[in-house]
Amino acid sequence: MSDLSSVKALVFDVFGTVVDWRTSLITDLMWWGKGRGISADWTALVDGWRGMYTAAMDDVRKHPERGYVILDVLHRRSLDKLVEKFAIKGLTEADLDYITKGWHRLHPWPDSVAGLTRLKTKFVISPLSNGNVALLTNMAKFAGLPWDLIMSAELCEHYKPDPETYLGAARLLGLKPEQVMMVAAHNGDLAAAQKNGLKTAFVARPTEYGPLQKVDFEATGNWDIVAKDFGGVADKLGC
User: What Gene3D superfamilies does the database record attribute to this sequence (predicted)?
Assistant: First the structure.
């Protein structure tokens, strides 16, 4: 393990690293749909929704003249396409809003809250997510995530893995990049963070995508910490 004595803050990827988005959304929509009498293949919809995530952000990057668009809006645009694709009938505007805000109601992995609470005793902890500020704030209230502050791609108007997100987080914290550690279950996220001078910690979430998981079963880079869960990160950082 490299020298981490200068690290003052930990910033976290959220979707998949801190919260189990797939199980949370599928369960939420199955119960909600049953209560509303709306039948749909919610598992396919959720997997399709996440599958549109990267392309939606890439479209924002390709058209800077249109301005930055927050993730809530991108999620709604993708949902509208999926509702049409799956021919889900009878949805009101309130229904579509409820479904979109399912991303605000995600449950944490079993180790997340306890691990974050331990890490908070020694470090400033914050999300560094592509989720917008309102989404991340509502999620923290829902899931009991003990963040010290909420940092979002929205604050930098750049989505990860753009350098502006990682460097912007360090700037907002008043720290040098090497004083900030990025914690993620995604090797690509950590590679971008490391390239911009941040320290890195990998925690595997091998069930994030359920049976569709194809990558990130294990660390594939030279990360500063590799741990099985947030408790393991806390152990290695002396919390």
Answer: 1.10.150.750, HAD superfamily/HAD-like
